Amino acid sequence: VQLQASGGGLVQAGGSLRLSCAVSGRIFSIDRMAWYRQAPGKQRELVATIAVGGRTNYATSVKGRFTISRDNVKNTVHLQMNSLKPEDTAVYYCNIEVGIGNLYWGQGTQVTVSS
């Protein structure tokens, strides 16, 4: 199973980015898909999750600005990030859970928001 994240980059505060993560390999179905982020000197934190049925959850810091979505046919997950702030600067990781406790991670994509 491999996760390939893309879409990161440098953007000014107030701008937008869309992250994508493509999952490949032999997977029957993906339960939870999620995005995490890790800023320099900080612990990795959960940004957003989406269940197979579409139910979503967001960190308080991104609620109303970020939108997570998934395509269950293409096995992809996206994170639309609007109204970006400098504090959103981090490496963003996609994550999936297959069954109970089987977690897979992508390689991370850098998001840098300039003030």
Offer a concise description of the structure.
This protein is an all-beta fold and 115 residues long.
Structure description:
- By secondary structure, this protein is mostly beta strands.
- Helices cover 0% and strands 56% of the residues.
- The chain has strands at residues 2-6, 9-12, 17-24, 32-38, 45-50, 56-58, 66-71, 76-81, 90-98, 102-105, 109-114.
- Strands 2, 4, 5, 6, 9, 10 and 11 form a seven-stranded mixed sheet that branches. A four-stranded antiparallel sheet has the order 1-3-8-7, with no helix packed on it.
- Strand 5 and strand 6 form a beta hairpin.
- It is globular.
- The protein starts with a strand and ends with a strand.
Keyphrases for this structure?
115 residues; mainly beta; 7-stranded mixed β-sheet; 4-stranded antiparallel β-sheet; 11 strands; 0% helix; globular
Write the layout of secondary structure elements.
Blueprint: E1 2-6, E2 9-12, E3 17-24, E4 32-38, E5 45-50, E6 56-58, E7 66-71, E8 76-81, E9 90-98, E10 102-105, E11 109-114
Parallel strand pairs: 2-11
Antiparallel strand pairs: 1-3, 3-8, 4-5, 4-9, 5-6, 7-8, 9-10, 9-11
What's the gyration radius in Å? 13 Å
Give the proportion of residues in helices.
under 10%
| Residue-averaged pLDDT | 95
- Please report the distance between the alpha carbons of the first and last residues: 37 Å
Query: Class by helix and strand content?
Result: mainly beta
Beta content comes to over 45%
